[in-house]
């Protein structure tokens, strides 16, 4: 899914990370991985696997990260959990990501949901035009 992306020496947020299934792949690519999940139990499990990585139990809606902190934000199958606050999540992702937002999101259901429900899709387009960021969605 990410085979053509050069993650080497990049700062990555594994957002909505669960116990770290995506982190294993990311760490093979010599990048600095930070983890975020709203569940304290998931972060506890994550820290057991990856004690060397910075991790926090917090919401993607309002993180403690500085502006422009990450090179990439990776979310695999989690954004559907933020409904009806998808726009707030996207604004936060844009805030914490450097210059050009590089969000890699994998979840066909939410992509179809955005297409058919329109409201979130329209708001998302307005956010992206206003901030001149690029959002990459993969399936």
Q: What are the secondary-structure elements, in order, as H or E?
A: EHEHEEHEHHE
* Separation of the first and last Cα atoms: 9 Å
Low-confidence region ranges: 106-139
Shape: globular
Helix vs. strand class? alpha/beta
Walkthrough of the structure:
With 139 residues, the chain is of the alpha/beta class. The chain has a single domain, classed as 3-Layer(aba) Sandwich (Rossmann fold), CATH 3.40.50. The protein is built from five helices and six strands, in the order E-H-E-H-E-E-H-E-H-H-E. It has helices spanning 21-27, 40-49, 86-96, 108-117, 119-131; strands spanning 11-15, 32-37, 54-57, 72-76, 103-106, 136-138. Helix 3 runs parallel beside helix 5 (119-131). The longest helix has 13 residues, at 119-131. Residues 106-139 have low confidence and may be disordered.
Write the layout of secondary structure elements.
Elements: E1 11-15, H1 21-27, E2 32-37, H2 40-49, E3 54-57, E4 72-76, H3 86-96, E5 103-106, H4 108-117, H5 119-131, E6 136-138
Parallel strand pairs: 1-2, 1-4, 2-3, 4-5, 5-6
Helix pairs in contact: 3-5
